[in-house]
Amino acid sequence: MRLTDATWTDVRDADVDVAFVPVGSTEQHGPHAPLGTDTLDAVAVAEAGAAAYEETEGESADGDATEGPGDTAGEVAVAPPIPVGVAEEHRAFDGTMWVSPDAFRAYVREAAESLPHHGIDRIVFVNGHGGNVAALAEVARRFSREDAHDGYAVAFTWFEAVGEHGADMGHAGPLETALLRATNPDLVREDRVAAAGEGAADRWGEWVSGVNLAHDSDEFTENGIVGDPTAGDAERGEELLSLASDALASLTAAVVERESE
């Protein structure tokens, strides 16, 4: 259930187990991928993960072999995405937007804390941007420790849940390009992909003694890309979506199960 599409009475009458809050960024993704890549990917994984969880729990409720956390199948409420994150490292590239970590943490936490008021007290932040990871972990901890409600939250980053593919994660490289090709193909500028790959950096940052000397991405990549986007086709994107959504569904079952602890 998308909250933006639902009415308030739909939400009131629904049996909601958990809410997904997609969190992305509006930042450069090279000349071939849109500024909203991280947000689009987070939404795609959140919606696929919601479908996977509801299907699994529905089978469990029907008495099939699949095990789940409860006897009835609940819904996932997918909140509208948060599209601007911690992304100042991309400030040299036109169109990039960012907020401070403090502003980000406060906004995301307060937005999430409105949901327990309606009885939705289990939250999964579905993240698509590496720069948000540390801040979202803190948000989840503070949300879970809040005395004003009995809520519990965790943060899930999709590209950390795709097995061996994760080793290829760069920036606007094979994984993000693949997922976009599978979920939003019209937004990939296919005529620019080959040239984008030729200008890409091999790795993120400038590393000496385990320290990244580069604070901003333009210090090590001229076109904003890390990794080869030509290695990310739609077939790989479908596999990534399946792996990420299955992992999200499994995590969600564990989050919902904690409700009885």
Keywords:
261 residues; alpha/beta; Rossmann fold; four-stranded parallel sheet; two-stranded antiparallel ribbon; 37% helix
Can you put this structure into words, describing what you see?
Helices cover 37% and strands 11% of the residues. The protein is of the alpha/beta class. The protein has one domain (8-250): 3-Layer(aba) Sandwich (Rossmann fold), CATH 3.40.50.10310. The strands form 2 sheets. Strands 2-1-3-4 form a 4-stranded parallel β-sheet, with helices on both faces. Helix 2 (37-61) links the parallel strand 1 and strand 2.
Rg, Cα atoms, Å: 19 Å
Q: Kindly report how far apart the N and C termini lie.
A: 26 Å
What is the overall number of helices?
Answer: 7
- CATH topology name, in short, is Rossmann fold
How large is the share of residues in beta strands?
5-15%
CATH class: Alpha Beta
Following the backbone from N to C, one meets helices and strands in this order, namely HEHEHEHEHHEEH
CATH architecture: 3-Layer(aba) Sandwich
Name given to the CATH homologous superfamily = Creatininase
Compute the number of strand runs.
6
Low-confidence parts: 65-71
Main pleated-sheet profile:
4 strands, parallel
Could you say how many structural domains there are in total? 1
Q: What order do the strands of the largest sheet run in, or round the barrel if closed?
A: 2-1-3-4
Q: What share of residues is helical?
A: 25-40%
SSE-based structural type:
alpha/beta
Mean pLDDT: 93
Using the alpha-carbon principal axes, give the shape: globular
